[in-house]
Design goal:
The complex is a heterodimer of chains A (109) and B (113). By secondary structure, chain A is mainly beta. Chain A has no helices and 11 strands. Chain B is globular, with a radius of gyration of 13 Å. By secondary structure, chain B is mainly beta. Classes of the chains: A mainly beta (109), B mainly beta (113). At the A-B interface, strand 4, strand 5, strand 9 and strand 10 of A face strand 5, strand 9 and strand 10 of B.
């Protein structure tokens, strides 16, 4: 099945810093989503981005499907950005979202 | 009402108990999913239902039994669980199972004692 790798696994930021999270995947996809998991476990939808670039406030994402990667940018980070960020993809023939291992982000005040 | 609602939020059960997890979606979707998140492991798909029919069973032990009575409700019936089944169980829904965005519930944190 499709493999999804996220990097870095852990990231510590000072409040106000910018950062880039990466998601690599092993095969063609027709769906890619970025999620933020809050401390209570809920997965919050950030972006549905099988290709192209999207922006939402301080967050933006870019997926280059032909090169099989996606990037999530966090600008002017805030302590509320702390948590785990997951990338998930759905292969061209699949019914399911396959998740990466996540990037754990800690933003310090 | 939130899009996908799971109950209970927390559950502690003994190994001989029988319990059920419930998921309800208010988004008009026709596909629903169960995922398991164990400590230090990626989220793993357990089951997929599309139009109330199970379309994927990801080699899940029979002590987990899903039920999808209609497109808005999904249950996970639990019996004779093991301590290693302790995890966060997440439900999701989407419109179709291909080029479509999935939305998740808040999860049920299960502890088996």
């Amino acid at each position: 099945g499709i493999q999804v790798e996220q990097s870095p696994p852990d990231l510590i930021l000072q409040e106000g810093a910018n950062s880039t999270l990466r998601c690599n995947f092993s095969d063609s996809v027709n769906n890619l989503q970025w999620f933020h998991q809050n401390p209570w476990g809920q997965l919050i939808n950030l972006f549905y981005i099988p290709s192209g670039t999207k922006q939402n406030g301080r967050l933006s994402a870019t997926t280059v499907a032909t090169e099989r990667y996606s990037l999530l940018y966090i600008s002017s980070s805030q302590t509320t950005d702390s948590g785990v960020y997951f990338c998930a993809v759905r292969g061209a023939a699949g019914n399911k979202l396959t998740f990466g291992g996540g990037t754990r982000v800690l933003v310090k005040p | 009402e939130t899009g996908v609602t799971q109950t209970p939020r927390h559950l502690v059960m003994g190994m001989t108990n029988k319990k059920s997890l419930k998921c309800e979606q208010h988004l008009g979707h026709n596909a629903m999913y169960w995922y398991k998140q164990s400590a230090k492991k990626p989220l793993e798909l357990m089951f997929v239902y599309s139009l109330e029919e199970r379309v994927e069973n990801n080699s899940v032990p029979s002590r987990f039994s899903p039920e999808c009575p209609n497109s808005s409700h999904l249950f996970l019936h639990l019996h004779t669980l093991q301590p290693e089944d302790s995890a966060l169980y997440l439900c999701a829904s989407s419109q179709g199972t291909r080029n479509t965005e999935a939305f998740f519930g808040q999860g049920t944190r299960l502890t088996v004692v």
